[in-house]
C-alpha cells in the first residue's frame, strides 16, 4: 500500500474516526441454487393453476360473452289417422275427377287418345326408361341413407386387441341446423363403444346416441353438421317423410333402399301386399306394411314411394314364419311422434297396455261403452301394478274423455315418466259395466 495512504489513515485515526474496510460477502452457492429451484418450482405451480383456472372459467366467460344460439327442437308434422280417406270418399273423389276430365275433353279428342294408346307398342326401350326413372328416385332417397357401424374393441384367444363391427342402414330423419338425426335399429348399435356413420358420398363421422325406444327397438343417433365438409353437407339430404295412412297403399309400387338384401347400397322394387296391420306392441298403434320384395332376414333401410317419400322403416322381425324373407316395414305415420321425442331427448311415458278400438256396430249390438279396449297388460308394468285388467275399457285419462285406443295413446304420449295419472275404466260385472277410477304411476320406455 502506498506510504501516503497510511499517513492519511493515521491522521484520520487521530481525529477519532473509525475506519472500516468493506469486504465483498462470499457467495453461498448452495443457498442460491436452493432459492432458484424454489422460485422455478413455484413458477411451475402458478402456471399450472393459472392454466386450469383458464380452462375451467373460459367456457363460462365465453358462454356469457358470446352465448351460442340454442338449436331449434326437432318438429315433425304429425298425421291424424282419422283424416284417412274412406273407400267411399276415394270413390267420390275419383268420380269427381272423371267428371271434370269428361267436361274438359271433347269426345273426338278422347277417341283419338284412346286409339293412340291402343295402337302403341311398348318395347325394351320403354322398359329401360321406366327402370331408369325408378333408379333415379332410389338414388335421391339414397342421399338420406347412411351406413351405421357399431365399433367395439375385442380381444382374441391370443390376447391381441382388434376392432369388431356390425353394420346397418339408417335414415336421416331431421336436421335442426346443428345436428343430423338418424333413425336406426337399436340392435345394430347395441354395446357399441363407438358409432361410425358413413354417408352416401363416403364421408365418415362419429355419432352420439340420443335415445332408444325399448318398445319398437328404434334408436335415434346424432351427428354434428360441423363434423362434415361443406361439400358433403350440400349433397346430403334429409329424408322426406311421407304418409303410410293416406288412402289405400295395397298394390302400389314401392322401392326398398338401404340394405334390403343385407348388402349396403342395395335397391329392390316391388309392390305393397298389405298395410295397416297392427303390430300389437304395448302403448302404441304402430302398423305393419308388407311387400312382395324378396330380401334378407337381416335387411334394413326404408320403403319409399315413387315420389321419393319414405313411408316405412324396414324391420324384418315382424315377418311371419312362412314368409321370412319378404321385406316388411313399420308405417312412418305412427313413427313421426316417436322420432320427434327421441331426437329432442324427451323420455316417453310407459304404462304397458295392449289394446284396440272396438268397431261402432259391435258397440251398439253388445252395448259396450265406447273407449280404449284393453286386451292385456304387460307383466310387472305400471298398468298391472295399478290393477288394470284385460277386458277393461278406458274412457278417460286425467279427466279427458277417450273415445278410441288411438286417442288414449295420443293422451299417453303427452305424459312424462313418473307422472301419476288418473284413469277411468269401465269394468264388466254380473250386472253390467261399473265405473272405476285407477291411479297409475308411469315409468319410462326410453333410455340411452
What CATH first level of the largest domain would be assigned?
Mainly Beta
- How much of the sequence lies in strands comes to 25-35%
CATH architecture identity of the largest domain: Beta Barrel
Helix content: 25-40%
Number of strands: 22
Question: Any chance you could write out the topology, listing elements then pairs?
Answer:
Layout: H1 3-14, H2 29-65, H3 87-104, H4 107-119, H5 124-142, E1 145-155, E2 161-175, E3 179-185, E4 194-198, E5 204-213, E6 218-224, H6 230-235, E7 240-241, E8 253-259, E9 266-278, E10 287-294, E11 300-304, E12 309-314, E13 326-331, H7 332-343, E14 349-350, E15 353-357, H8 360-366, E16 372-377, H9 382-386, E17 393-397, E18 400-401, H10 405-413, E19 420-429, E20 432-441, E21 443-444, E22 446-447
Parallel strand pairs: 7-12
Antiparallel strand pairs: 1-2, 1-4, 2-3, 3-6, 4-5, 5-6, 5-22, 8-9, 8-11, 9-10, 10-13, 11-12, 12-13, 14-21, 15-16, 16-17, 17-18, 17-19, 19-20
What does this protein structure show overall?
The protein has 448 residues and is of the alpha+beta class. It folds into four domains: 26-68; 145-235, Thrombin, subunit H (Beta Barrel); 240-343, Trypsin-like serine proteases (Thrombin, subunit H), CATH 2.40.10.10; 350-447, Pdz3 Domain, CATH 2.30.42. Helix content is 31%, strand content 33%. The protein contains ten helices and 22 strands. The chain has helices at 3-14, 29-65, 87-104, 107-119, 124-142, 230-235, 332-343, 360-366, 382-386, 405-413; strands spanning 145-155, 161-175, 179-185, 194-198, 204-213, 218-224, 240-241, 253-259, 266-278, 287-294, 300-304, 309-314, 326-331, 349-350, 353-357, 372-377, 393-397, 400-401, 420-429, 432-441, 443-444, 446-447. The strands form four sheets. The chain has a six-stranded antiparallel barrel. Strands 8-9-10-13-12-11 form a six-stranded antiparallel β-barrel. The longest helix has 37 residues, at 29-65. The radius of gyration is 37 Å and the shape is flat. The termini are far apart. Residues 81-93 have low confidence and may be disordered.
